[in-house]
Design goal:
single chain, alpha/beta, 8 helices, binds guanosine-5'-diphosphate
Length: about 280
């Protein structure tokens, strides 16, 4: 009857609005569309809608749910007997993932522009909770792919660094954490997350060095340049730890595989990325 209907309407209205936004970045072919499609399929197993991993020219926004057994930052110690688990099953936590095209030309106009806009947003509804930067760990052995991937990540981190610096010291902006989702760990040629981390750090160090040299040359010719160096201290070798020390931006490299998620044999699937997302919520 009417009370039930009212209850449903009320319940749906209050049931965790998907106010937490995550941005999915990374070069094309990394598995971003496959990941978004998987999250959507897991969120509503009944609907078989698929983005059918095509090369999209536009970013897409998907509202998905966190598996009830994944703890959240505000509910860190959820155990099987915890009453909050029942609540999480009844009323799963929803969040939004924006998938962006990773093609070179679209990165600046879409991925990085999207990042700047979302990172500047003061509205809690559109606030960016975290950035997932996806990489194909089997493709990183190729020098060109590594350079391309590291350049994109460098540019993403520079946007976040500028944001961190612009926040006034009295009202510190909360830093947006970054997850490097080291995808395709199911492949036998995949680099383990630890070496993905090292390779990216070393390549970003090279980018910084050459950028710094460019700035010095520009200074010689008297040209003013407001460009800044990632993690500031160009005397020290770049590491993600240095970045965190200098800017407060936390970055983690976590392995996983979109492909193996539904099967038992392939380690963790995307579970550990979902755990990282949960910790941001
Ligand atoms: P995007 O350009 O980043 O959106 O990448 P796609 O989602 O289109 O994926 C590119 C290709 O990688 C597709 O053929 C996917 O099926 C494949 N792929 C995605 N994730 C995995 C994974 O974990 N393991 C393997 N082996 N292949 C994957």
């Amino acid at each position: 009857g009417v009370p039930v209907l009212l209850h449903i309407i009320f319940f749906q209205a209050v049931a965790s609005p998907p106010s937490s936004n995550f941005l999915l970045l990374g070069p094309s072919g990394a598995g971003k569309t496959a990941f978004t499609t998987l999250l959507e399929a897991k969120s509503s197993p009944a609907s078989k809608k698929s983005h059918a991993t095509h090369t999209s020219q536009q970013s897409t926004l998907a509202t998905v749910t966190l598996p009830p057994t994944v703890p959240t930052g505000s509910n860190r110690y959820r155990s099987v007997n915890d009453p909050s688990l029942k609540e999480a099953i009844r009323n799963p936590i929803r969040y939004r993932v924006r998938d962006t095209p990773g093609h070179g030309k679209l990165r600046v106009s879409q991925g990085l522009a999207e990042l700047s806009t979302m990172a500047q947003s003061k509205d809690i509804k559109t606030r960016l909770r975290g950035v997932l930067f996806m990489v194909d760990t089997a493709a990183l052995v190729d020098e060109t792919t590594l350079r391309d991937t590291a350049t994109y990540l460098h540019d993403v981190l520079l946007v976040l660094q500028k944001r961190a610096k612009n926040g006034s010291s009295s009202k510190r902006t909360t830093e947006i954490p970054v997850l490097v989702a080291a995808n395709k760990q199911d492949l036998f040629t995949a680099l383990p997350p630890g070496s993905v981390r090292e390779k990216l750090e070393a390549e970003i160090e090279r980018i910084r060095k050459s950028k710094n040299k460019g700035l010095l040359d520009a200074a010689d010719t008297g040209l003013e340049d407001e460009e800044e160096i990632l993690a500031n201290d160009e005397q020290e070798t770049f590491t993600f730890k240095l970045l965190e020390f200098e800017t407060g931006i936390k970055l983690e490299v976590v392995g996983g595989a979109v492909k193996g998620d539904q099967e038992e044999d392939f380690g963790s699937g995307v579970r550990r990325w979902e755990e990282w997302i949960g910790m941001c919520l």
